[in-house]
Amino acid sequence: MEHRLCVSLDCSIGGGEQMSKLLAVGMIVRQSGELCIPLRAQDGNTVVIPIQVVCMKVAELDASVRMKHACRDLHIRTILDLVLTTEEDLMSVRNFGRRTLIDLIEKLGKLGMSLNMILVPPDNP
């Protein structure tokens, strides 16, 4: 069973409502002492990404102004919001072109992630 959620994590100390929701549905796992979120890429591979990475604000990515504006227009605030987004959603934003998309895909790849990922419950690897 695939899970696709639109979430914005509140990464402040003390958690936040979205973090509590992810914990409640068992989407957060502990791996090597770190809290992580399992995500499945389109190729079927599942990766486990630390909360600190998925909680990063898109503004913290070394990204172009066009990419940041597209994320703002789509209400994408965190890296998790971004990796749950499709290429089609991004390409629908005015002035977001193929080159910007390629740059974004490369930046996410360096973090071990991609676009259009799916949250995976820990008991469903």
Describe the structure.
The chain has 125 residues and is an alpha+beta fold. Helix content is 35%, strand content 14%. The chain contains 6 helices and 4 strands. Strands 1, 2, 3 and 4 form a 4-stranded antiparallel sheet that branches. β1 and β2 form a beta hairpin. It is globular, with a radius of gyration of 14 Å. The model is unreliable at 1-17 (pLDDT under 50).
Features:
125 residues, alpha+beta, four-stranded antiparallel sheet, 6 helices, 4 strands, 35% helix, 14% strand, globular
Concise account of the structure shown:
35% of the residues lie in helices and 14% in strands.
Show the helix and strand layout:
Elements: H1 17-24, E1 29-31, E2 34-40, E3 46-50, H2 51-54, H3 65-73, H4 79-83, H5 87-91, H6 98-110, E4 118-119
Antiparallel strand pairs: 1-2, 2-3, 2-4
Strand fraction band? 5-15%
**Helix and strand run:** HEEEHHHHHE
Segments where pLDDT lies below 50 for 5+ residues?
1-17
How many DSSP helices? Answer: 6
Q: Report the helical percentage.
A: 25-40%
Largest sheet: 4 strands, antiparallel
The tally of strands reads: 4
Rg result: 14 Å
Q: Can you give the mean pLDDT?
A: 79
Helix-strand makeup class: alpha+beta
Q: How many angstroms does the end-to-end distance come to?
A: 10 Å
Global geometry? globular
